[in-house]
Specification:
Elements lengths: L1 E5 L6 E5 L1 E7 L3 E4 L15 E8 L3 E4 L10 E8 L4 E5 L3 E2 L6 E4 L3 E10 L4 E11 L2
Parallel strand pairs: 3-5, 4-6, 5-7, 6-8, 9-12
Antiparallel strand pairs: 1-2, 7-11, 8-10, 11-12
């Protein structure tokens, strides 16, 4: 999918291929994003990474603490099924609140955006919101 993005280096707007993947999170699983991965949905490129996930259980998410370009963005849309779920953002993430957990009520979507901070070697939460299914 092509989209307009602002280049991190030059600040210029350009048409680029955004990486959009759809994953299913399974109960008690760990989702480990990586700078290099044989699993395309977990691979993070240098611009904007969008991932759509269906949360069917509690999940722990981790991210690399090196090998990621400064200001790389990670956008997550996590759709919760008919049961309340808890997502834990562990190694490589900094969330608010500091506990790193996000409770998602049933039939709700968490939209959360992170930006990689090389000085802190982790993805920092930029914003988050919840959307309730109609």
């Amino acid at each position: 999918m092509s989209t307009w993005i602002q280049d991190k280096e030059s600040g210029n707007w350009l048409m680029s291929q955004a990486t959009i993947r759809k994953d299913t999170i399974t109960y008690a699983s760990t989702v480990a994003f990586a700078a290099v991965s044989s699993t395309t949905s977990l691979y993070l490129d240098a611009n904007i990474n969008k991932r759509y996930m269906a949360a069917t259980g509690a999940c722990t998410l981790t991210a690399p603490t090196s090998g990621i370009a400064a200001d790389t963005e990670l956008h997550l849309e996590i759709l919760c099924d008919g049961t309340d779920r808890t997502m834990t953002f562990s190694t490589g993430f900094e969330c608010h609140p500091a506990s790193g957990t996000k409770a998602i009520e049933s039939n709700t979507t968490l939209i959360i955006i992170f930006k990689y901070n090389t000085a802190e070697s982790k993805f920092i939460e930029v914003s988050s919101s919840f959307t309730v299914a109609a």
